[in-house]
Write a structure and sequence with these properties.
Largest sheet: none
Radius of gyration: 15 Å
Strand content: under 5%
Number of helices: 6
Number of strands: 0
Number of domains: 1
CATH architecture: Orthogonal Bundle
Structural class: mainly alpha
Helix content: over 70%
Order of helices and strands: HHHHHH
Mean pLDDT: 81
Low-confidence stretches: none
Distance between the termini: 28 Å
Shape: globular
């Protein structure tokens, strides 16, 4: 028996923009763990991290129709999460990260995707 095909993120985004609740739930399940983990690393408060992750998801889903086809949803979501962290007065990345990204150059997206799991 052939395993069920897993839809791509782009397919799920298109389905979400057409009101598909199952696609929405699948995207939330994909995004939420990494967003909460990232936020927890800066707040060290799980409830605060979960609340920040939820606000980020709400913002991301409000912007889905404008997301470019070739954009990585996870990278876009992390960018919004970083803005949410700054609004709360928390750092959005350790001090050495900008230097690391500069040193890595064009491989940033690939590495960020691998780090997010």
């Amino acid at each position: 028996m052939k395993p069920a095909r897993v839809p791509s993120t782009h397919e799920l985004i298109v389905a979400c923009t057409h009101g598909n609740e199952e696609a929405f739930q699948t995207l939330v399940a994909r995004l939420q763990p990494s967003l909460v983990h990232y936020a927890w690393g800066f707040s060290l408060d799980m409830a605060r991290a979960e609340a920040t992750g939820l606000r980020t998801i709400e913002t991301v889903f409000g912007h889905l129709p404008r997301l470019r086809h070739n954009s990585l949803l996870s990278s876009y979501a992390i960018g919004i999460l970083r803005k949410e962290l700054r609004k709360e007065g928390l750092p959005s990345a350790p001090d050495g990260v900008p230097v690391l990204w500069t040193a890595l150059g064009n491989s940033r997206e690939r590495i960020a995707t691998q780090m997010q799991g």
